[in-house]
Amino acid sequence: MARPVPLPRTQPAAPSPSSSTSATSATTTAGCGCPDGRGGAGSFSRRSLLKALGVGAMTLVATEQVHTQVAFAAPGYTGDVLVVLSLRGGMDGLSAVVPGGDPDYYRLRPTIAVPQSSLLGLDGTFGLHPAMAPLMPLWKAGRLGAVHGVGLPGASRSHFAAMEDMEKAAPGTSLRTGWLDRTLGTRSVNGGAAGTFQAVSMTGSQTPQMLAGPAPELTLKRLEGFALAGPGDSAVEKARWTKAYAALHAEGPPTVAETGRAALAAAATISSTLGSTPAGSGYPDTDLGKSLRDLARMVKAGVGVQAAAVDHGDWDMHSGLGAAGGGWMKDKLTELATALAAFDADLGALMSGVTVLTISEFGRRADENGSGGLDHGHGNLMLALGGGVAGGKVHGKYPGLGASALDNGAVASVTDYRDVIGEVLQKRCGAGSLSEVFPGFSSAGALGLVRSR
Amino acid sequence: MALSPQLDALHDRVRLYAPGGLPVPLDAAGVRHLVRRLTWGESPGLLEEVRRDPQAWFDAQLDPSRVDDSACDGYTARFTKVRRSIAEVRAQDKNGSWDTMSELGWLTTARYAWSRRQLFEVVCDFWSNHLNVTNPSSDVWDSRHDYDAAVIRRHALGSFEEMLVASAKHPAMLRYLDNTSSTKKAPNENYAREVMELHTVGVGAGYGEAGVRAAARVLTGLTVGKDGTYAYDPSRHDTSAASVLGWSTPAHSAADGEAVATSLLRHLARHSATATAVARKLAVRFVSDDPPASLVSRLAGVYTAAGTQVVPVLKALFTSDEFWASAGQKTRRPLEGFIATVRMTGSTPGDAGRGGIDDLYWQTRELGQAPLAWAPPNGYPDVAAAWRSAGGTLSRWNESTKVVNGWWPNKLARLPDKSLLPSPLPTTFGALVDALVLRLLGRPATATERAALLAFTEHGAGDALKSTDQWVGWRLNSVVTTILNSPGHMER
C-alpha cells in the first residue's frame, strides 16, 4: 500500500495587509459594522493551497462509498431553479431603481440623490442607477423587473429581527423553520430521498434562516477545493478515509453528523460530475461573483438544484453612501449588476428555467442623515431576473415620498413581500396552495411580475 | 451521546463543598464536561491537573492573575505593534495600515490556543462577540487593538456596566457603529439602535422606533477627536428632554451632555431586560442552545444583585444543577473544534518570530470563524443550528488534518507523533483504538467509533499489535486525524 502523499508544505504568505488597505471606510467590507451576510470572515480570497488541491481529487472509488446520498438530478421537479439573492444590511432600493420623476426624492436627498441626467431608461417615474448599466439590456429585453415598496407588514427596523422574521415568514406562529425549507418540504419528488444539491446555500460557514428546517440543504462557499485533504492521490486511500469519515458521522448531533455526510456526498459529486463542467466567465472577482459562477456551474451540470441562497452583504450605508459617479453605493451596484449579467450570460438558454429574486430586510429612510447616509427604513425594492420575468418595468404600487406617504420617515411598505415570492412559487416553481409556505397569509393577488411556465 | 450515568446523577449527589463550589469529587466525565465548557480544549496534562483538584483549578480560572501564564506571555510578547497607544499607531504607521489589526488577530489566536487562563480567554471571546467590533475593518485600523485591551480584556471578569460605558466611549465602537458622525442636527441611529438591541435590553424590550430616535439624540456628542481618541463635543449634543425605557432627562446644558449620555448607558446596563439578556446569552454559551428559563431567571437575579459583576454570575452558572445536567448539549463551533485540535496535539509556536501563529490565524479564516472577524455587530452565533455548513465542515477537517500531520503550519513546534500513544503499547488493535479514542475524545469509544476505526486499519479488535506496525508508525497520524475529525471531537 502506498504511503499517502503529504500536502504541499509550502503555502503562500498571508495576503499582504497593505494591499487590502482601503483609505475610505465607505468601500470597505463592514467598515460600518453592518450585517454583511453570514460569512463574517468572508472578505479574503481563498488561499491558493486549496486551489492546488483542486476539484476532482476524489475518485469514483470514493464516490461508491456515498452514492446512495447523491442525486444527480431532481426527478419529478419541473419548476424553475429559484435563486434567492439576499442583499443583507438593508439595501436602499431608491438608489437602484430611482424615482427620478419624483421631486420629493431630490428634496429629501440633497447630497446623495442620483441626478436625473445620469439615470438609465428614465420613463417619467423611474430610471436605473448608472451603475446598473450591465443590466440594461436585460431590463430592455423584459427579463429583469422590479417591485417597489415591498416589505413585511409591521416589520422591525432591526437588521436581525427583520431578517429573521422575513426568512421565517410565519408571523404570529411559533414556527422556527424558514419559508424556503417549507417550500422544499411541500415537494414530493417521486417519493425519493432529497438530493444533496436540491437546496444549495452559497453562504460560506453559515446557513440562512430561510433554509432552517427538515429539508436538507448544502451550504458551501466555493466548489474549488471542495475535496477531502489528507489521503493523497491514491484511490485506495481516498476510499479508506471517505468510508471511515462516513461511518463516524453515522452518529452524533445532527448539525455535525448530517452535515458531515452531506459534505462527503457533495465532494463525491463535485469530483465526478462538476469537474467536467467548466466555470463561466465575466463575473466580478468577488464573493458574489464567485458564488454565482459556482451556482451556474451546478445548474449547468444538472446536479439537481431546485433552490439556491446567495448572500451579498454590506448594504448598511449609515454614512458615506457616496455620489452616483463614485462611492459605496456605486461600487455595490456595479458589483451586483455585473455579477447578475454574467450569471444570465453564463446560463444562456437555461435562464428560461431560472428565476432570481433579490430580497433585503428593509429599505432605508427617505431622507438622508447628517453623515451622507441613510438610517433604517421599511419598504424596499425587489428585483426579479429570468426567462419567465415580465420585466422592463416597476410592478405594483409606488408609495411615493410625500410627507403623508412616508412610514416614520421611510418608504412605506405597500406590497407584502410574500405576494412577490408567492407569485414566483406558484407560476414558476410548481407550488399549489401557499398555506404551508406562508401560514396565515392572505394574498392580495398576483402582481404580474412573472409569467406562468 | 450519553457520557456516563454518574454525570446524569451528579445533581443528586450530596455536595461536599461550601455553597458556590463545584460538585466535587468529579469523575472523569465530570472533569471532561468542566474542561470542554470552560476552555478551548484539552491540552496535554490539563485533564490531570483539573482531576487533581477541580475546585482549586476552577477558583484560579475565575481569578486569572493567580495563574502563571509565562509561556503564553512569551509567545504574545513577540507581537509589539499591538502594545502601542492609539497615538503611537497614528504617528508611526501609514494611515489605514492593517499591521496592528493583523497582529491582534494573531495574538488572539495564540491566547486561545496557549494561555493557561483558559476561562478568561473563553469569556473574552464571549464579550468580544457581544460587543463586536470587526477586526480587521478599516475604520478601526488605529484603535481596535486598544479596544481589545482597554474595554474587553480589562472588564471581561469585572463589571458589565463599566465595560458597556467603556465600549460606548471607545473610538473603535464609535467608528464601527457611526456614533462618531452623529449630530443633533442629523442624528445617526446606528449605535443607539444596536446598544439597546444587541448590547443591553434586547429588541423585545419595548423601546420602539421612538426609543431608538430618543437614544440617538441623547448619545450625540460622543465622538472621536482629531487625534483619534474619544472626545465629547458639546456642540453636537442634543440638549432636549428625552425618555427611554424608564430613564429620562430634562432639557440640559450642552456641558452636561456627556454625563446625561453616560447615565443612559448605565441605566441600560442595569435594566432588568439586560440582566435577562446577558444571563441567557451566558447560559447559551455554557449550558445549552435553549437554556432552561429557571436558570436564566436565577442568573439574571445574580447579575442584578451583584451590580452587573460578571464573576458572581459565572460562579452561579457553573455550580448550577442545570450546568451539570447539560453534558452533550453543546456543540463546538468551527473555531473551537480547530483550536481544540491544536491544543490536543500539544503543538506550540516555533522558536522565533510568529512561529506559525499567523498561519494558524489564516486557517481560522478558511474555516469561517477567524477570531474577532465577524462582520455584523451581533457577533458569531453560538448555537449549533447556525453552523451546518458542508463547506465549513470540509474546511475544518482539512485544516485540522494539516495541523495533526504537521504539514501546516510548518513552523509550529510539535510533540513527537508517538506522544499520543499509551504506554505501554496495547497488545491488540482493539485496545489501541480504545486507548486513542479515550485520549483524544476524553471518553470511551462508542461501538460505532470502534468499528469505523478498526475498519480504517483493516484489522480486527483481537489482531495482535506490534510496536513496529505501520499503524503505530507512519500511519498513526491518519488515525489521530480521523478521530479528531469525528463528531465526538465536536462535543462541547
Structural class of chain A: alpha/beta
Estimate the strand proportion of chain B.
under 5%
Question: What is the average of the pLDDT values of chain A?
Answer: 84
Helical residue percent band of chain B: 40-55%
**Share of helix among residues of chain A?**
25-40%
Shape annotation of chain B:
globular
How many DSSP H or I helices of chain B?
A: 24
The string of secondary-structure elements of chain A, in order, is HHHEHEHEHEHHEEHHHEHEEEEH
**Helix and strand run of chain B:** HHHHHHHHHHHHHEEEEHHHHHHHHHHH
Q: Provide the gyration radius of chain A in Å.
A: 22 Å
Provide the fold topology.
The complex is a heterodimer of chains A (453) and B (492).
Chain A: H1 17-20, H2 48-53, H3 60-65, E1 81-86, H4 93-96, E2 97-98, H5 103-108, E3 127-128, H6 136-140, E4 144-151, H7 159-168, H8 179-185, E5 199-202, E6 218-219, H9 235-248, H10 254-272, H11 287-301, E7 307-311, H12 328-347, E8 354-359, E9 380-386, E10 394-395, E11 415-416, H13 417-428
Helix pairs in contact in A: 9-10, 11-12
Chain B: H1 5-8, H2 28-38, H3 46-52, H4 54-61, H5 70-76, H6 86-92, H7 99-114, H8 118-130, H9 144-155, H10 160-168, H11 171-176, H12 190-199, H13 208-218, E1 222-224, E2 230-232, E3 242-244, E4 247-249, H14 257-270, H15 272-286, H16 293-305, H17 310-318, H18 321-324, H19 334-345, H20 357-366, H21 390-405, H22 429-441, H23 447-457, H24 476-484
Antiparallel strand pairs in B: 1-2, 3-4
